[in-house]
Amino acid sequence: MVMTKEKSILRVVGISGSLRRESFNRKALQTAKKIALEMGVDVDEIDLKELNIPMYDGDIESNGFPDAVQRLRNKVESADMLIIATPEYNHSISGALKNAIDWLSTGKNILDGKTAAIFGASNGLFGTMRAQAHLRQILNALNVIIAPQPQLFIRSAKEAFALDGSLSDQKLFLQMQKLIKKTIELTVLIKENKQ
Ligand SMILES: Cc1cc2nc3c(=O)[nH]c(=O)nc-3n(C[C@H](O)[C@H](O)[C@H](O)COP(=O)(O)O)c2cc1C
Q1: Nearest C-alpha to atom 4 of ligand 1 is from which residue?
Q2: Cβ neighbours for 87, distance < 8 A, ≥ 6 positions apart
Q3: Could you tell me if the CB of 161 is within 6 A of ligand 1?
Q4: How far apart are alpha carbons 183 and 195 in whole angstroms?
Q5: pLDDT per residue over 126-141, tens digit each?
Q6: Range of the domain at 75
Q7: In terms of pTM, does the model score above 0.70?
């Protein structure tokens, strides 16, 4: 279990921006969860498909957050760190992920001051490089802290995963370990300085 000096436990949520059941990004997130667990950190996964939040609409918001949105906001609010696996759709992040971020940012920005480990898997040669650049920009606007390095691009995703869904490409696996470790360290530092 990772704790700060003051013995407060690190809370982490994981989100896949792809809703697809057999999604490579869902698979990558499972690997990230296992890596985090080996480092003593339990990741609470938020399933955007199950939550089924509506499209952001100011008229809906003015009547109060819908239950699913409130559940999403509560889970993220109680977390110190996020792990986000993003697909690349037309050189950007998925609508589902952007919509979730929009709901988290409106009214009180729930993401303010949290850290995030971001990565993504795609079938293309760039492995979500362009989507991740957009995701960094969006999260930057919301005061989410992301380590500049390491970055993780899971390209040619069809070849990167084993039949059991684990990330079998060793180079990528090691890169993911570095990314999770770095972000946990960053999160502990920030949490300790807030206390
Ligand atoms: C609407 C749409 C747009 C896409 N655009 C891109 C793209 O710009 N770059 C890319 O590498 N792959 C693109 N893809 C292919 C995805 O990388 C591929 O479907 C991948 O499996 C999606 O992630 P997932 O497996 O987590 O669902 C696109 C797929 C869809 C459905």
Answers
A1: 89
A2: 17, 18, 23, 24, 25, 93, 94, 120, 121, 122, 128, 131
A3: no
A4: 18
A5: 999 999 999 999 999 9
A6: 12-194
A7: yes
